């Protein structure tokens, strides 16, 4: 995750290959075969073709976008069949959620969350040279993740843990816990499991400990606590670990698009992306995102933090377009929220490099633990 710069506007204005008419199947096939990527740089703008080098330059400049190369046609179809399917702007929707009411069940679960488990998961995860979505070590990391969550969920016939494969080497991972009394709507918690070294994505070192190793291991540990406590949700509950967030929200966009196409109803989506850093000398907070979110879900999230965490809630500054995987769900009209490690400017400055490790001054497991608590509470309160 990285919030976008004003520079983006200039980049869009300078885009050359702008399309006034829908892109044909032939053009999609031809250009993808040449290695070009189709990027959506703003909600109103038209998608533009970029070479891999240009994509990298955009990432280095801090621009954020959806890589829609593999979802363009499905999205065109979705836009045709349902005029309001796509959430056009940053303006929030407002779903309704009842306040937290399961304190006596949730509170004991929170004390089962283990920092040393999270450390151990993160040590494996950050041990891969990088988790770039097109690299071999990125693919290996997704295989490790699948293995790990399969170990946790083994023996439960109401749970599936599977790879969601893509047209690139790294898979996303999806754990589905069936609802005992209903088949929908589904509650989803997400994090991205990929990482990037912006100077050398394919071969450079990118431990991605905070971005987004922390969110990734918060969710593994949340899953472990819920499963080991014997929790059986009444409505379906899912955990997603996305491939390719750093390359343009690729995994989450593919999955959110496929859920929309299947007509899947989503009650709520919570993204965890960077939960482990507190800038030395600044107050420790949970900073909730104000844009590309659902206001009703955000209010519920504030109540969760107040009820279950030791930290105060503050409203972050806007993150902007295509800022993290919640944007993929928001784009399909689903309610989203994102609690973040701190206010932008006080977040981890070492991300997207070989320096994103747990040994930086400011990294805090006790801070990250608060986000695992929020995740357990979110899952339990919305699906019990
Ligand atoms: C990318 O990886 C290389 C090789 O591991 C490393 O020397 C370099 O510092 C990394 N770049 C960044 C921005 O961290
Ligand atoms: Zn991230």
Features:
384 residues, alpha/beta, Aminopeptidase, 2 domains, 6-stranded mixed β-sheet, 3-stranded antiparallel β-sheet, 12 helices, binds 2-acetamido-2-deoxy-beta-D-glucopyranose, binds zinc ion
Strand and helix map with partners:
Blueprint: H1 7-14, H2 25-33, E1 37-40, E2 48-50, H3 52-61, E3 66-67, H4 72-81, H5 103-110, H6 115-127, H7 136-153, E4 159-164, E5 172-177, E6 186-192, H8 209-228, E7 237-242, H9 250-261, E8 266-271, E9 286-288, H10 295-308, E10 313-315, H11 326-331, E11 336-337, E12 339-340, H12 365-383
Parallel strand pairs: 6-7, 6-8, 8-11, 9-10
Antiparallel strand pairs: 1-2, 1-3, 4-5, 5-7, 9-12
The chain binds 2-acetamido-2-deoxy-beta-D-glucopyranose and zinc ion (ZN).
Describe this protein's structure.
The chain is α/β, with parallel strands linked by helices. The chain folds into two domains: 2-87, no CATH class; 103-383, Zn peptidases (Aminopeptidase, 3-Layer(aba) Sandwich), CATH 3.40.630. The chain has twelve helices and twelve strands. The protein has helices spanning 7-14, 25-33, 52-61, 72-81, 103-110, 115-127, 136-153, 209-228, 250-261, 295-308, 326-331, 365-383, and strands at residues 37-40, 48-50, 66-67, 159-164, 172-177, 186-192, 237-242, 266-271, 286-288, 313-315, 336-337, 339-340. The strands form three sheets. It has a six-stranded mixed beta sheet, with helices on both faces. Helix 8 (209-228) crosses helix 12 (365-383). The chain starts with 6 loop residues before the first helix and ends with a helix. The mean pLDDT is 93. 2-acetamido-2-deoxy-beta-D-glucopyranose (NAG) binds at residues 197-200, 204-205, 353-355. Its EC number is 3.4.-.-. Residues 1-20 form the signal peptide. Its cofactor is Zn(2+). Belongs to the peptidase M28 family. M28E subfamily.
């Amino acid at each position: 995750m990285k919030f976008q710069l004003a520079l983006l506007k200039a980049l869009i204005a300078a885009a050359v290959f702008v399309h006034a008419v829908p892109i044909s199947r032939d053009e999609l096939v031809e250009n993808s075969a040449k290695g070009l990527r189709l990027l959506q740089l703003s909600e109103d703008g038209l998608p533009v073709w970029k070479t891999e080098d240009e994509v990298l330059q955009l990432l280095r400049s801090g621009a954020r976008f959806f890589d829609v190369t593999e979802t363009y046609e499905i999205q065109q179809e979705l836009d045709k069949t349902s005029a309001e399917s796509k959430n056009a702007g940053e303006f929030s929707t407002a779903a309704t959620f009842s306040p937290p009411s399961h304190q006596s069940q949730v509170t004991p679960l929170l004390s089962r969350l283990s920092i040393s488990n999270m450390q151990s998961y993160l040590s494996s995860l950050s041990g891969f040279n990088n988790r770039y979505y097109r690299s071999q070590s990125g693919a290996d990391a997704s295989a490790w993740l699948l293995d790990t969550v399969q170990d946790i969920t083994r023996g439960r016939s109401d749970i599936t843990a599977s790879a969601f494969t893509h047209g690139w080497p790294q898979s996303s991972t999806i754990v589905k816990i069936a609802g005992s009394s209903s088949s929908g709507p589904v509650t989803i918690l997400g994090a991205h499991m990929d990482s990037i070294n912006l100077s050398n994505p394919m071969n450079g070192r990118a431990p991605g400990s905070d971005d987004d190793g922390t969110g990734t291991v918060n969710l593994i540990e949340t899953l472990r606590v819920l499963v080991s406590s014997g929790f059986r949700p009444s409505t379906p509950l899912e955990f997603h670990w996305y491939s390719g967030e750093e390359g343009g929200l690729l995994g989450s966009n593919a999955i959110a698009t496929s859920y929309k196409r299947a007509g899947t109803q989503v009650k709520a989506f919570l993204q965890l992306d960077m939960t482990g850093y507190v800038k030395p000398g600044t107050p420790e907070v949970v900073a909730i995102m104000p844009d590309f979110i659902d206001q009703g879900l955000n209010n519920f999230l504030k109540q969760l933090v107040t009820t279950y965490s030791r930290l105060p809630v503050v409203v972050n500054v806007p993150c902007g377009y295509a800022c993290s995987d919640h944007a993929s769900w928001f784009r399909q009209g689903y309610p989203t929220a994102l609690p973040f490690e701190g206010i932008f400017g006080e977040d981890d400055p070492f991300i997207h490099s070989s320096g994103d490790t747990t040994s930086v001054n400011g990294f805090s497991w006790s801070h990250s633990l608060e986000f695992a608590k929020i995740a357990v509470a979110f899952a339990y309160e919305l699906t019990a």
